[in-house]
Amino acid sequence: MKITVIHGTQRHGSTWHCAQTLLDALSARIQPEVTVFTLPKDLPAFCAGCFTCFEKGEDACPHAAHVQPIAKAILASDLVVLTSPVYAMDVAAPLKNLLDHLCYLWMSHRPDPAVFRKLGVVVATTAGAGLGHTCKTMRNSLKFMGFKKQFRLAHAVSAMRWEDVPPKTRLRIEKQAQTMSRQIVTAAANPARLRKPFFRSFFFTLMASMQKKNDWNPTDRAHWERHGWLAGKKPF
Question: What does CATH list as the number for 2-195?
Fold first, then answer.
């Protein structure tokens, strides 16, 4: 199994340890090939909102040299793990920056056929509140890209440092990671048994209808035409 892990911060705190606990649990079941990106080290430039990726293609993005290695790793993976601690009741800015850069992969623009077969995990921790909104931000990006199934590993750890996380909380995290690792391995081994997300089918159909009328962005429309999606084909 190929796994891409994207850490939203460079801090090895509770969120990093939760993700590592999941990777350890997976490694006990399979032999994963893991690629790790750490933000902002691997993407130091913020999205400029220039629309270049939408209008001219992702390779024309002024930050393509940083963005495309991450995007290509995502497309080559079976499982994508996004991690972020809760900062100001949401994801850390470096991760939000990456999600902004990857919007061209959303179904409203140029989804990649490979994405529709992928599994995703969002990992988040907080000393207090904000888990729901933080996880929703990460899950929305995976959802609108078309991921087939998502998992969530999120905990309010009541501590600022991993060393101070109560033993009972650590035990809950370990147990959830073990259960999740089994579910992920099962899902990866039996993709045909996974239920097709209703939202994905509905939104893809809606976007296909929109692209048929698209006279404002030839780059997006050409992508849909090239894959035959405007003629009724679907990538799932």
Answer: 3.40.50.360
